[in-house]
Design a protein that fits this description.
The chain has about 625 residues and is an alpha+beta fold. The chain has 23 helices and 20 strands. Helix 4 runs antiparallel to helix 14, helix 14 crosses helix 15 and helix 15 runs parallel beside helix 16.
């Protein structure tokens, strides 16, 4: 290339990462470049293992030694040469599992703008309960306020004071919105047993066995089935007062000399669990206790995560907690009305704050996330939803000259939602970036300006570039395996399906649920012995119905435990086990491999243990 010319492509020479076979290829810059191929053909090895790895490593190397020492250093990719690679960002197929305090609002940073609105633009409450109307003094955070009703001096809360992961957190739950409480249903698992027979489960594993004797001194009959006790006796067992009682202790081992009078404090079944919980020091101890616990909505903040003080400011008549309960679509309409609800002198500031919110929200709407509420816990979002949050954040930063590597962004997206994803990619290109797209979906691959196809097979049989060019060139290339699918001329085999009248001949599962998240009450029949697909646009409730309703209820029914709260009933005669295969990584720890996970390694060790060398060295499997 002439020294006066501007690079228009990344040049990769001799790439050998994973199964890549000395690959040399050019990747156009400032375009959408797709990488296609069968699973295991080397797509991610080229995109992430070479291009992203080298782009991010070289960017880090440009930083000072002082800064690099405090960052994880990436190793050099196994490649002869990579020229003209920009700084790279990767949006991974499986975004990191979010923390317990993460919500849709915090993950998209919409909550930052919302907190600023409530800090600067709302009516604030004085310590005596009177509200001050919005004013430019508050908006400018200009000194202390004086209540016109009672004369009390106070300061308006800052944005940080309204954050549930900071000083605005509920004191009871610590900003999680949930508290662990004792699950009464687990304390007496078999009410036909007497207390002498071990009816009170926590006393069998978390407390001295002689608590039965103390209970008897509390006036409870311990030789009667628990179900036949009076309500007063049952209440003493569950939540009786911590009183000292005098008992005569006789050990089960009659030969023991430890016989005598004891003064013991009575611990009810509930108090026993709470006492053990306070003493937990490790994971093993927690496992003994957690079977008696359940998670409930915090009684103080009612799941909002915010302290009473953080819920006090009101903007257009609602609190921050109320605003977070809105869906993204509802919140946009509400935020648009905020400036006009304020005094004239505050509107310029209000419009600036609101605009920052609306700009981010618009991109999330393009990606089909308008149905999510801002307080929705990130842990309940699907992989596709979390990846689109990542993508929206990347676009909002308005970078230029960056290589964006998107690893299967179509995961979890309904075909109707891919249009918004395509718009985001084109926005990145318009800002002067380059997009490298790894995917199988022909709807999104068709948007590529240039396509590189890896193959021809998976694993050892892959790692070659079998075709490259524009979409028309790929379609006309006889070596291309994806060309016929892009052209919609592929001969696809579809197995014979059961007729409508045959679908339920082998039986069915019936699921009945109440409202949860975005899902309305459901009555669902699922045929047994058939392949059933659950589909729908993103956010329609697929994950909620299957992963949060059907599977937990089946697992609970096998163990004889209680239904999830939103599940009314399930009928699943003849179903004895349920196996979940999802997008979660299969590796349990850093030493996990495919061989160890599939137990192949165990069989190999047994074979090698039978060899003469192993026997001579006394090696065992």
């Amino acid at each position: 290339m002439n020294k006066d010319e501007k690079p228009d492509r990344i040049e990769v020479r001799g790439a050998r990462v994973h199964n890549l076979k000395n690959v040399s290829v050019d990747i156009p810059l400032n375009e959408i470049v797709g990488i296609a191929g069968v699973s295991g053909s080397g797509k991610s090895s080229l995109a992430l293992g070479v291009l992203y790895a080298e782009g991010s490593r070289r960017y880090l190397e440009s930083l000072s030694t002082y800064t690099r020492r405090r960052m994880t250093q990436a190793s050099r990719a196994d490649v002869d040469e990579v020229l003209y690679v920009p700084a790279a960002l990767a949006l991974h197929q499986r975004p990191a599992v979010p923390g317990i305090r993460s919500t849709f609002g915090t993950g998209t940073e919409l909550l930052n703008s919302l907190r600023l609105m409530f800090s600067r633009l709302s009516s604030h409450r004085c310590p005596n309960g009177h509200y001050l109307k919005p004013s430019i003094q508050v908006a400018a955070m200009n000194g202390e306020l004086v209540c016109p009703e009672c004369g009390e001096h106070f300061y308006a809360p800052g944005a940080e004071d309204l954050a549930f992961n900071s000083t605005g957190a509920c004191k009871c739950c610590g900003g999680t919105g949930m508290v662990r409480t004792v699950d009464r249903a687990t304390l007496i698992p078999d009410e036909s047993k007497t207390i002498d027979e071990g009816a009170v489960a926590p006393w069998n594993s978390l407390m001295w066995s002689l608590m039965t004797d103390v209970c008897r001194e509390m006036g409870v009959r311990t030789n009667v089935p628990f179900k036949d006790l009076t309500e007063k006796e049952k209440e003493i067992v569950y939540d009786g007062p911590m009183e000292k009682k005098h008992i005569f202790y006789v050990p089960k081992n009659k030969s023991s000399a430890a016989v005598g009078d004891l003064n013991m404090t009575y611990y009810s079944a509930t108090a026993t669990v709470l006492n053990a919980l306070n003493k937990v020091k490790d994971e093993k101890g927690m496992k003994r206790v957690e079977k008696f616990l359940k998670e409930d909505v915090c009684p103080d903040c009612h799941g909002t995560r915010l302290s009473e003080e953080a819920r006090a400011p009101k903007l257009m008549g609602i609190s921050l907690a109320d605003a977070c309960r809105m869906t993204l679509k509802e919140s946009i309409a509400w935020v648009k009305r905020v400036p006009e609800s304020l005094p004239e002198e505050m509107r310029n500031m209000a419009e600036t704050i609101c605009e920052s919110y609306l700009e981010v929200a618009a991109r999330l709407m393009d990606l089909g996330l308008g149905y999510l509420t801002l307080d929705r816990a990130s842990s309940t979002l699907s992989t596709g939803e979390r990846q689109r949050m990542q993508l929206a954040r990347a676009v909002r930063n308005r970078t230029t000259g960056v290589l964006y590597v998107l690893d299967e962004p179509s995961i979890g997206l309904h075909p109707a939602n891919i249009v918004g994803l395509n718009d985001v990619m084109h926005d990145l290109i318009r800002d002067g970036n380059s997009v490298l797209l790894v995917d199988h979906d022909t709807q999104i691959l068709s948007e590529a300006d240039w396509l590189i196809e890896m193959g021809p097979e998976a694993g050892v049989g892959g790692g070659y570039v079998i075709a490259e060019g524009s979409i028309p060139q790929i379609i006309s290339n006889k070596k291309s395996m994806i060309g016929p699918f892009l052209a919609k001329t592929a001969d696809m085999h579809v197995r014979t399906q059961a007729g409508k009248e045959e679908v339920f001949t082998l039986g069915k599962l019936h699921l009945s649920t109440d409202n949860i998240h975005t899902v309305k009450p459901l009555e669902v029949d699922i045929p047994k012995g058939r392949l059933t697909v659950v589909t729908g646009v993103s956010g329609s409730g697929k994950t909620t119905m299957v992963l949060e309703s059907l599977i937990p209820e089946l697992e609970d029914s096998f163990c004889g435990e209680h239904l999830p709260k939103h599940v009314k009933s399930i009928s699943a005669e003849g179903i004895a086990h349920v196996k979940l295969i999802d997008a979660s990584p299969i590796g349990i720890n850093v030493r996990s491999t495919v061989a160890t996970y599939a137990n192949i390694h165990d069989e190999l060790r047994k074979i090698y243990a039978k060899t003469a060398d192993a026997k001579d060295r006394k090696y065992k499997a």
